[in-house]
Structures are given as structure tokens and as C-alpha cells.
TrEMBL record:
<feature type="transmembrane region" description="Helical">
    <location>
        <begin position="262"/>
        <end position="280"/>
    </location>
</feature>
<dbReference type="GO" id="GO:0016020">
    <property type="term" value="C:membrane"/>
</dbReference>
<feature type="signal peptide">
    <location>
        <begin position="1"/>
        <end position="17"/>
    </location>
</feature>
<keyword id="KW-0472">Membrane</keyword>
<feature type="transmembrane region" description="Helical">
    <location>
        <begin position="41"/>
        <end position="63"/>
    </location>
</feature>
<feature type="transmembrane region" description="Helical">
    <location>
        <begin position="177"/>
        <end position="202"/>
    </location>
</feature>
<dbReference type="Pfam" id="PF04479">
    <property type="entry name" value="RTA1"/>
</dbReference>
<keyword id="KW-0732">Signal</keyword>
<feature type="transmembrane region" description="Helical">
    <location>
        <begin position="142"/>
        <end position="165"/>
    </location>
</feature>
<keyword id="KW-1133">Transmembrane helix</keyword>
<protein>
    <recommendedName>
        <fullName>RTA1-domain-containing protein</fullName>
    </recommendedName>
</protein>
<keyword id="KW-0812">Transmembrane</keyword>
<dbReference type="InterPro" id="IPR007568">
    <property type="entry name" value="RTA1"/>
</dbReference>
<feature type="transmembrane region" description="Helical">
    <location>
        <begin position="222"/>
        <end position="242"/>
    </location>
</feature>
<feature type="transmembrane region" description="Helical">
    <location>
        <begin position="104"/>
        <end position="122"/>
    </location>
</feature>
<feature type="transmembrane region" description="Helical">
    <location>
        <begin position="70"/>
        <end position="92"/>
    </location>
</feature>
Amino acid sequence: MALLILSVLYLGTSCVAQNSTNPYIDPKDDPNNPLKYIASNSLTAVAISIVLTTALIHTFWCFRYRTKWMLALVVGEYCYAIGFGFRFALHYHPDSRGIYISEYLFIVLSPCAFIAADYILLGRIAKFLACGEYVPLPLNKVTLVFVLSDIFTFLMQAAGGSLSISQNANVAISGSHIFLAGLVLQLASFLVFFSIFVRFLYKIYTLRPDIWTRDQTRHWFWDWRTLAGALTVSSIGILVRSGYRVAELSYGYQGFLATTEAYFYLLDTLPLVIANLVYIPCWPGRFILNEYECGRCQLRY
């Protein structure tokens, strides 16, 4: 995967010598430039460095703690890094429709994997604490329901994105509407999930103080509430990003949100980077070192 990312970077930077001169002084006036700005290589380099480093560390944690159930997060991070790799190519070929489409789909769709990882983590925490009764759905279904909703909204966004690049204006408009609907449904689904998670923590805090405080004598590094806090931070980051994407598409592909690079990094990249970075010191597999048998958990210290 790392070699694939490096290949993308190489292709994006090595083929610029033959690039023709852009006749438009201001990229906002260039009708062939979908971004309406020239992607900053400096910001792209910072972003891809952080995302790729996070992915590599999470890959190590996955093998170290045998947490295959967090692979969705890791795979999503590598795909996200590939998206930034395409932004290097866009810097030199801002009018390339193919590069733009590849960049946009990788950047916009990869976070679906981050969302799926958070969905899975709630079920794992509930089983670990043996507090499944505080989740409104059976634990063997709660993860399935939300992951399926994530897959459904992912497919809607992928289909809408594919249609929105059509040369036919009516098809493109329909595609953008489908894409926006997928984003809205994804945001709504995650809001429901986050509400369930907050309710879950509140129930434990008020009804099961023995479980809430069971790790209070241990270092924060091993306190399950630290993991719950990490999931909270990750969820907030995803909510900020999802809200931005809905607002961005509501204004259209040529709206001020979509055509201003600062908004992309401030409201999309930064929240997602934080949402993933938080799992470096708070990797779930370090807190949940248990095996499940017939719905009961046995913690190995």
C-alpha cells in the first residue's frame, strides 16, 4: 500500500515537464479547473505525511494487539493518503478531469471506513464492559445495523459521484443530488450513533458506578474511560467533517466552500486527522485485551 502511494506521488510530480502553460492568470477564471485554485504542495505534503504516519503506526498496533476488527480504520487511512497523493498531481495538472475525479473520490469516500471503525468500537466496548443492556439494540445487531448503513451511504455517494461527472447536465445534477443525499443520510446515521454512545456512557455513569470507576486506580493509559474519551473525540471530528461536506455540496461544486482550500483543510482534513490521531495513544486493542465467549468477557492482564 505504501508503494502504491509513493507511485502516485511519483506520477504526480514526474510528468509535469510537458505541461502546457495555463492561459488563465487566476485559477478562479479557469473553466477547466474544478477546484478553482491551485492545490498547495506544502499543505498536501504536511497532510499526507501525518495521514501516512498515522496509518503506519496503526498498522503496527493492529498486528501488535491482534485487533483485526480495526482494519477498516487502517485501510481507510491508506486510501485517504492516496487521495492526497493525487493532490500533488492536481497542483501541476489543475485542469485534469481524471486526476480531479480520483482525488475527490479517495478524499470524500475514505472517511466511510473511519466511521465504520467507530461503529465497530462501540459494540466492542459494550461487550468488554458487559453492559450491552445500555445499548438500545442487541449487541450482535447494533454494529451490523450501523455498518450496513455506512455501506449503503457509501454506495450512494459513490454512485452520485460517478453520475455527477457526466457530460450530460441533467445526469450530473441528478448525480450531485444523490451524492448530497448520501452525505445527509451518513450524517444522520452518525448522529444517531453518537447519541446512543453518549446515552450508553450516561447510563453507566449513573447506574453502574462500580464499572465507571473500576479502573480509577490504574494509570489513564489503561483506564477504559480513556478509550471512551478517544471515541468521543473521534466522533466529534467526524461530525464536524460530515457537516462541512453537507454544507459544501449544498452550495454546489462551485460554491465558496468547495473552491476555498482553507476550508478544506480546516473543516475536512483537520477534524479527520484528529479523529484518527487520537487512536495512536489510545489504541482500542490496548484497552480491550479480552476474548468473548457466549457474550461474557475475560480480561487478560
